[in-house]
Task: inverse folding
């Protein structure tokens, strides 16, 4: 079975793709599966996070104090690679291609930690092509703490749902992925996304109206079939 596995990244991080061994003749589309799981080995990227978009008070919150972080993802999209134009010609601008446009609601704190059993969050058909980016368009996000949390002059009560603002409403990643057409039933290209709970709450910003600003930290590494992530 074809498994073109690539672990996606977020917050301007890089990713490594795995070249597919399947023939690209046949259908002009390939099945793409997007999965997610937790990983506590991830670290926060220098300069990334809500500090760049807010002057509000910040706090580092242990992941153990967060009960849930629920995202509603309106769209999951990949960015095709555009070839360099001949000298003197203007470069063509790539357009994001949607894997799924159906709302996907998931609790990042409830994602599996077992690399062998990630949670599939979307599946769709994409044109056979090379891709260099993946992004989540977030329409809504909420967070619940399990202890009283003070950030500057703002207090967040336990077991209470608070709005989370994701800067620009998009979690954008770098990605290298060649989508190929499968030759057998069930063949697919897999984008496996890692979420880092510990790193995600190192820079949590409070707003004046009781919301928080947060960029969930997603990172990645390429894993071939038969390897553990």
Result:
């Amino acid at each position: 079975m074809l498994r073109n596995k690539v672990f996606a990244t977020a917050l301007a991080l890089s990713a490594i793709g795995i070249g597919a061994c399947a023939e690209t003749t046949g259908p002009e589309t390939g099945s793409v599966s997007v999965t997610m799981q937790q990983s506590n080995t991830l670290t926060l990227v220098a300069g990334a996070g809500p500090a760049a978009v807010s002057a509000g008070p910040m706090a580092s919150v242990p992941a153990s104090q967060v009960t849930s972080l629920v995202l509603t993802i309106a769209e999951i999209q990949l960015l095709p690679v555009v070839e360099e134009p001949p000298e003197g010609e203007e470069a063509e601008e790539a357009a994001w291609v949607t894997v799924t446009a159906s709302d996907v609601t998931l609790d990042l704190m409830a994602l599996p930690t077992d690399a062998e059993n990630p949670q599939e969050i979307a599946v769709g058909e994409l044109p056979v092509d090379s891709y260099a980016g993946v992004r989540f368009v977030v329409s809504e996000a909420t967070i619940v703490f399990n202890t009283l949390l003070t950030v500057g002059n703002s207090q967040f009560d336990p077991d209470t749902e608070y709005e989370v603002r994701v800067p620009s409403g998009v979690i954008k990643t770098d990605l290298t992925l060649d989508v190929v057409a499968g030759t057998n039933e069930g063949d697919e290209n897999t984008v496996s996304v890692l979420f880092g709970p510990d790193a995600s709450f190192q820079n949590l910003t409070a707003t004046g109206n009781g919301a928080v600003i947060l960029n969930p930290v997603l990172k990645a590494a390429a894993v071939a079939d038969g390897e553990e992530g």
The longest helix spans residues 197-200.
